[in-house]
Amino acid sequence: MHQEPEPKPDGARTERRRQFAEAARDERPDLALLCLLIAAEADPALDEAGIDAVQIELDRLAGLLPYAPVGGPGAWARNLAELLGARHGFAGSPAAYRRLESSLLHEVLRRRRGLPILLSVLWMEVARRAGAPVYGVALPGHFIVGFGDPYGEHTLADPFAGGRPLGDDDAALLVAGATGAELSARMLAPADPLDIVLRILNNIRAWAQARPEQSAVQLWAVELSLLLPSHPARLRHERAQLLVQRGEFMTGAAELEEYARVVEAVEPATATTIRRQAAAARALLN
After folding, report:
1. Looking at the structure, do residues 171 and 272 belong to the same domain, yes or no?
2. What is the full DSSP assignment across 125-158?
3. What pTM was computed for the model?
4. Tens-place pLDDT, residues 2-45
5. What is 76-120 written as a DSSP string?
6. Do 236 and 185 share a domain, yes or no?
7. Helix, strand or coil for residue 230?
8. Do 42 and 124 share a domain, yes or no?
9. Residue 127 in contact with residue 85, Cβ under 8 Å?
10. Residue 250 belongs to what domain range?
């Protein structure tokens, strides 16, 4: 059973979160760094030296790829599949969905198992370092990668399946299997790095939400999401409810009241309900 890690000292956590907020506002966000700062919330042992070691390993893997291979996007995809899928054994499994480690980049690198989105991040970061024209594709329910021009000649691959090449028909089957929807051109557009980070945090929140004993994990995933330049406003409500659930009644009540002020102009009835929740939280102190 997964054991919840001991909380980091406040100073270390504050500094990590400052780094995360700063990295998220860079003109070109460093996806690997952001993923590693997420992992550092879960793993107190992942310090600055550990983060540097992961970046060095990504560089090393990139150095094993042929430079500018003949054959365009398809050659890049085949070379990544050979290196990461066949030689190093990176792939997914049903068990990956049951483990928090499957959403932590340093653990995915160590265990060679992870969720589709984390394996895709690994592929993207190795490929990018090697000079490949690579991008993420945020299909509903199953993240994949693309090589080449997303609006022209390109090749799709599924890192969760060891790098299996995908045609548009294959991508349509993935979408239909996950959501029942039809594939659209919009779904095949390159994913924004910060959208990828938010999706990873959403996965962690969903993992923890299904396990009430992991409310601390859900809380830090929400709090990191709130540090992104763009995030759903409802996350503030979720954070307030988690604080109350964890016994931080005054702080949670104050957060509920602040959220009520945010939504009052557009949803006055919702604001009234939230204020009642705040009053109920304060009453728990009596």
Report:
1. no
2. HHHHHTT--EEEEEETTEEEEEEE-TTSSEEEEE
3. 0.91
4. 444 444 457 888 999 999 999 999 999 999 999 999 999 999 89
5. HHHHHIIIIIIIT--B--GGGGG-GGGG-HHHHHHHSB--HHHHH
6. no
7. coil
8. yes
9. no
10. 232-283
